[in-house]
Amino acid sequence: MIADYKELGLKAGIEIHQQLDTKEKLFCSCPTAIRDDKADVVVKRRLRASAGETGEMDVAAAYEQLRAKHFVYNAYNDTTCDVELDEEPIHSLNSEALQIALQVALLLKAKVLDRMQVMRKTVVDGSNTSGFQRTALVARNGKISIDGSSIAIQTVCVEEESAKIVDRTASADTYNLSRLGIPLVEIATGPDMKTPEEVKEAAEYIGMVLRSTGTVKRGLGTIRQDVNVSIRDGARVEIKGAQELRLIPKLVEYEALRQKGLAEVAAELRKRAAIVGKAADITSVIGNCPSEIIQSTVVKNGAVLAAKLSGFKRLVGKHFLPEGHPVVRLGKELSGYARAYAGVGGVVHSDELPKYGITPEYVEKISSRLGCGSNDAFILVAAEKDYAERGMNAALDRARQAMKGVPSEVRKANEDGTTTFLRPMPGSARMYPETDVPLVNPAAHLKWIKLPKLLIEKAADYQKLGLTADLAKSIVKSDYAELFEDLVGNYPKLSPPYIADTLMGYRKDVTLLGVSAEAAAAVSDGMLRQVFAAVNSGKLAKESVAAALSSAAKSGKLELDKYALMSDAELEKELKEIVAANKGMPFNALIGKAMERLRGKAPGQKIVEKLKLLVK
Q1: Cis preceding linkage at 354, omega within 30
Q2: What is the pTM of this model?
């Protein structure tokens, strides 16, 4: 921990989006399989933001329109239809998806609504061909308990998944439509978590509840966490795309410190009576600079723009995180806005110069041209003129915000725990009713809902069978929980810990025998059942399980006869030969010889017992 979260006044909440494992999409009968091969149909579109029912245009939608991008959509004949292409109205709400959402809501102790209204949520970033995402509030006011603290579940919604991003450029984004419309359940907590670790624990618990239903998709990309963070002197910031639980505490921690740093910078800027200047074209001043950034721009007849930031010196480059952690500073904020709004490479600021080939001589020339004083900084953008102007305007807008404090915005999670600006925080103007589907009565579906046992409850049951806490937790989190229970019920001669250990460890065992990870993963549940049945009946030794499965993984066929146990007569014959060939050998050494020769062909205990009878 590198911060005092109580002193900072940290508040955090989380939104979890989980794909549901339904046969059909939320508003059409297309399958929920995601394709990544060559598209059958390619469509090019532009989206425009418009005012909602309140007469206002959503700020996030207006931002996306300013970026002036067009969008390319890859569609498939067998996994997309005219609904995904926004060429026909949506169909009725998928009842299977609704029932799963209701099940989740009840498990989270949320109150189901009397009526559901499907809403349109304006989204013009290209991720939905219609320009909005459809979502419906299912339940409210639930709760979970994390280490004795009550965490509010504000809402449970069912909504459609967005299209999958394939490629981004400065002028266009390409999306895959096979993912668009897959049903999601969205769960939003209150801002009740006070430490980064608590946010992770809440996400882990909700993920456990979702997996307990047995009706959610598994694997990378099927679940996403969006974290909302604020501190006492900051603002609510939504961090999108935290896919890995391990990353959540770092995201929260770094965001709290980012906001702390921005608040301190804002206080100092106000103290200095800082002023954000206007952009000036300095191409002629810096055109001969040896910097590759400058020269590549000049060669392409681009423009180098600069602006004075009065009173900003040493604040643009101030680091907000302790040494040894990633670089987070105001300069990166300015660059983030320039990239997002204009697609330029970034912003260079005077606090980091000389650098990038911009020598002290040219730093002085720029400062002189802009009239910078001892307490002033400057920024510059080098790009094609139109992009440079848009990028500079975005950076200057962000510099003006820096004097006020922490802006409320949406940011993208990075792998190192830092975040990058995505767009302004959307407002209430983005939501309005969907007119193509009627109101839904959830009560009509409640009679079909059966609540499963939570995985943490199953883990407690497994511990009663003799499994350690870690092994029980591993089994319930794996894909083998149902198979484990079936094997325990059908093969009483095998101990539950042995069954669990084998299920969780056989892939590693067979890879040690030269099987690839892909082949090991191809061992079917049917093969596993046959192997456990053979061990239970005494036809296969436990020591031969790995060898039998290894052979099956390589050939795709389970051949248990190759690894069948010897008859008692065959075993006795073999042992007599071993004793005769090693007369006078100590008994323990004799056991070693026998085990080396007969391992997997007979149970070890039986080998020892029969050997004792032969050497009396």
Answers
A1: yes
A2: 0.85
